[in-house]
User: Which sequence fits this backbone?
């Protein structure tokens, strides 16, 4: 099957029972996408599929056929994405394991709500668990990223 | 790509771009995959196990069984620090076998490891095992374990008791209670928790027959803790094992030593001659990562007419789980004892602790490891005593505070507190929280049919002196003038690379990109403790400081020579030596004097011995409970902390946030629940509720730096203090909200169902 990953078209041989995360990690060697649970709860595996945040542990690889997948590795161009920068500057990560998923969920969140309220941020990150930060600085990072993106547009 | 200086931490660039390397990110050619066969039974005698069908399944390479473990001469897992009574009586130990042999004692206990060409094959084959087990009744809590006819886990531990530990001055305490005008008691439970770091537990092992050496990738808290445990279990000398770990996705105390799977992967890679990878599922993490807490603390306090505390007694119960592993006993008999007086000057103290076995996952350290539990117990008790005997809870605390003039303060039960200004922090917390106007806010909430409560706690905890006699940091300069530092301690989110670099930058002026911190490295035979007990910043950080002092001192004659001036004309400021209008930075000196192939004259080993520290703080929280639903909302949380000198304030604040929210998890959501047959009912994130972004209140943190003399930096621990503050603070707030409805005691977690039920029954 064929899919686009971080802008590159790939031809892949996948088995029917393979999950998208297995293709991303084991075949494409993009190990920034992490596996954190078996139950679609933690969000460490969040990627964008046709610009919508999905949990790659809960999508069969075949369901992604023909789609465009963006992982954490494909987010920065010549510059870091404002969300990446904001997560660091606001100390929105400690161990960093949940971070790629958090960042991808935030990118999706800010596509929907460019100026999110606190409640929209909390709702938007409801599918991502972080054990280290207590979320305080993650929320600050989302707010800061929103501001950065707005300012870049002006 | 942006310059890294735009980022807060050295660690961040790789972690925000997906370039971090966690254990499961290691791949080797020809690598095989492992899956564990675990006990589905809580308690039973193994009659026979057949792996015949497993071995015939597609892709299976080998099954590592208890027989293989025995043939390899492996020992059981380390029991950790063991406990002894004053009269010499030793704790009864029950070391956990790498793989179960005659009996299984908890659901999830490792029985065998299946190795196959793919993970899927290993997992599918594991289903085909045939186990003949005679099931026995299980004991899952204190009452069932200590009942007269209770099933016995271990022959050597009569009545499932490991030790009845006692400490303190029993006679003096008894006398204090006889003389008391007021006595209060309170029993609190610190429920069993599951640490749940986000990175799944994992091991990748590779054996090289040419050199007879092993490489192991696995999350850990410091290379020596992992190596020591592996050597103990496998008998493989430390020198033959390379622990290679880069990023660790959280640890919280759980990953201090080796688990069965660590030893098994090493054995498997040798037996099959290929690298082996094992990655747990989240269910396996729930079933086999050491659990935390599992404590019951029963406190009794004696007060005189004026409210002066005369004596304090605790009668504790500690659930060790099925075996004595790592820190369970240490927590149950030491950590919940040595700060049991809290921040109060109490003349008579005594304690007993019953450590007992149950058919559950063994208990070890989890964020705070007993410290939050005892802070919770004493601060609940003092609040309870205040209300029972009509004292103002703040004035009762103030009256009994250890005063600044009393330091160093020997608390008579195992700690010498070095410093603290409790009145000052309390005053500040009262001010920031607008405590004095609370009653108005309570009345206002009542008009909306909401029960508002305020809770205050003043906690103190003993931050670790470390298991090693000192901490060493080896410093080596590269040709480019980059200072590479090596030490034992490994981070799991704390930001060691950033904090250590900051100390170096402030002391000798090297820039962040001229400094590297490399954790581990078995071929560097250094001394030091792993990350734990919130001690790394002041323990290893002090050694880094010492390293810099030595570099400065040794660079002086080099600077003098390079500038052609006598040493006494040199001044060192901002990382450079100055004489007249000449100046040379440390970097320039290194670059000018570097001889390829030779160690640089400024390559030195820094070291420091640091004592325990006593971080403390006053936290105040306000909550509102909806009596119709039992849902509690945290409205505001104020934390004023004394962490001594804060080296990296943003990272310190991050630790406090994280600790507070892990405490919120315990207070409102988390609990490991076993049914009476010993099945874990909370085996996934669907049943075990973790705090999420939506749980978050407004958190205000402030710090007041009271410098400690117990280490060079003047810093105190911070990793666990948020948790020690938030358990009692939030519990006191919930009870304060419920007290007008006649509820004075309730156990965590305060789930809506529990709170609603309590409101209905009153």
Assistant:
């Amino acid at each position: 099957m064929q899919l686009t990953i971080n802008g590159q078209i790939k031809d892949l041989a996948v088995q029917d029972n393979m999950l998208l995360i297995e293709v991303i990690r084991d075949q494409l060697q993009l190990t920034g996408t992490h596996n954190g649970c078996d139950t679609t709860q933690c969000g460490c595996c969040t990627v964008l599929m046709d610009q919508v945040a999905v949990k790659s542990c809960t999508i069969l690889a075949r369901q992604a056929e023909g789609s465009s997948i963006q992982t954490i590795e494909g987010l920065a161009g010549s510059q870091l994405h404002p969300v990446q920068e904001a997560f660091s500057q606001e100390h929105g990560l400690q161990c960093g394991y949940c971070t790629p998923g958090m960042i991808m969920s935030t990118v999706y969140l800010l596509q929907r709500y460019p100026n999110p309220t606190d409640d929209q941020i909390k709702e938007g990150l409801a599918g991502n668990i972080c054990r280290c930060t207590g979320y305080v600085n993650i929320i600050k990072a989302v707010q800061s990223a929103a501001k950065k993106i707005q300012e870049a547009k002006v | 790509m942006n310059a890294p200086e735009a980022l807060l931490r050295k660690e961040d660039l790789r972690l925000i771009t997906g370039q971090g390397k966690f254990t499961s990110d290691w791949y080797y050619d020809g690598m095989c995959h492992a899956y564990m066969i675990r006990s589905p039974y809580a308690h039973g005698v193994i009659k026979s196990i057949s792996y015949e069908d497993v071995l015939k399944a597609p892709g299976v390479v080998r099954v590592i069984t208890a027989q293989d473990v025995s043939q390899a001469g492996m020992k059981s897992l380390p029991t950790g620090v063991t406990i002894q009574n004053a009269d010499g009586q030793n704790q009864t130990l029950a070391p956990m076998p790498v793989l179960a042999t005659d009996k299984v004692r908890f659901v999830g206990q490792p029985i065998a490891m299946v190795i196959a060409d793919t993970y899927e094959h290993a997992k599918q084959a594991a289903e085909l095992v045939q186990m003949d087990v005679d099931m026995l009744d299980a004991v899952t809590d204190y009452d069932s374990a200590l009942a007269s006819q209770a099933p016995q886990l271990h022959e050597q531990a009569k009545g499932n008791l490991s030790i009845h530990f006692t400490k303190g001055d029993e006679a003096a305490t008894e006398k204090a209670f006889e003389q008391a005008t007021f006595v209060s008691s309170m029993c609190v439970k610190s429920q069993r928790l599951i640490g749940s770091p986000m990175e799944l537990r994992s091991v990748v092992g590779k054996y090289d027959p040419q050199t007879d050496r092993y490489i192991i990738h696995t999350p850990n808290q410091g290379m020596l803790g992992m190596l020591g445990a592996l050597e103990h279990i496998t008998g493989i000398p430390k020198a033959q094992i390379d622990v290679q770990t880069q990023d660790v996705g959280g640890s919280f105390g759980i990953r201090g030593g080796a688990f069965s799977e660590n030893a098994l992967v090493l054995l498997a890679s040798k037996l099959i001659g290929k690298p082996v990878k094992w990655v747990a599922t989240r269910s396996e993490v729930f079933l086999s990562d050491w659990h935390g807490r599992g404590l019951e603390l029963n406190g009794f306090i004696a007060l005189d007419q004026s409210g002066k505390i005369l004596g304090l007694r605790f009668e504790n119960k500690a659930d060790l789980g099925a075996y004595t592993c790592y820190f369970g006993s240490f927590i149950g008999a030491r950590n919940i004892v040595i700060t049991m007086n809290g921040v109060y000057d109490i003349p008579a103290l005594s304690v007993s602790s019953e450590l007992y076995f149950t058919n559950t996952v063994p208990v070890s350290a989890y964020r705070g490891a007993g410290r939050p539990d005892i802070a919770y117990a004493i601060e609940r008790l003092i609040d309870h005593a205040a209300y029972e005997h009509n004292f103002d809870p703040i004035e009762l605390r103030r009256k009994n505070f250890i005063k600044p003039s009393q330091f160093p303060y020997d608390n008579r039960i195992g700690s010498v507190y070095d410093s603290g200004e409790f009145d000052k922090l309390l005053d500040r917390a009262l001010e920031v929280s607008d405590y004095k106007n609370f009653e108005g806010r309570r009345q206002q909430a009542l008009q909306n049919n909401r029960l508002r409560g305020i809770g205050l706690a003043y906690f103190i905890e003993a931050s670790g002196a470390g298991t090693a006699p000192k901490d060493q940091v080896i410093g080596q300069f590269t040709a480019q003038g980059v200072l590479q530092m090596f030490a034992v301690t490994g981070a799991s989110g704390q930001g060691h690379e950033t904090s250590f670099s900051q100390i170096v930058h402030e002391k000798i002026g090297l820039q962040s990109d001229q400094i590297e911190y490399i954790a581990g490295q078995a071929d560097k035979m250094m001394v030091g403790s792993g990350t734990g007990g919130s001690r790394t910043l002041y323990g290893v950080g002090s050694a880094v400081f010492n390293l810099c002092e030595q570099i400065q001192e040794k660079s002086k004659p080099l600077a003098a020579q390079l500038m052609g001036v006598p040493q006494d004309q040199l001044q060192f400021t901002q990382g450079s030596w100055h004489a007249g209008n000449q100046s040379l930075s440390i970097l320039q000196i290194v670059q000018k004097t570097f001889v390829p192939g030779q160690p640089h004259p400024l390559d030195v080993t820094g070291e420091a011995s640091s004592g325990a520290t006593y971080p403390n703080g006053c936290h105040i929280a306000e909550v509102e409970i909806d009596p119709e639903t039992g849902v509690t909302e945290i409205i505001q949380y104020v934390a004023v902390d004394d962490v001594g000198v804060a080296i990296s304030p943003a990272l310190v604040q991050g630790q406090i946030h994280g600790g507070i929210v892990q405490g919120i998890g315990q207070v409102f959501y988390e609990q490991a629940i076993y049914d009476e047959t010993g099945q874990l009912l909370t085996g996934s994130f669907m049943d075990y509720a973790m705090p999420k972004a939506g749980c978050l209140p407004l958190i205000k943190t402030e710090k007041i730096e009271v410098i400690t003399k117990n280490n060079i930096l003047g810093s105190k621990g911070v990793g666990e203090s948020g948790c020690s503050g938030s358990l009692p603070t939030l519990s006191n707030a919930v009870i304060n909200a419920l007290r007008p409805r006649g509820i004075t005691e309730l156990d965590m977690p305060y789930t809506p169902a529990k709170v609603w039920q309590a409101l209905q029954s009153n």
Notes: The radius of gyration of chain A is 15 Å. The beta strands of chain A are 2-5, 8-11, 46-49, 52-55, 68-70. Residues 82-153 of chain A form a domain with the DNA polymerase; domain 1 fold (CATH 1.10.150.120).
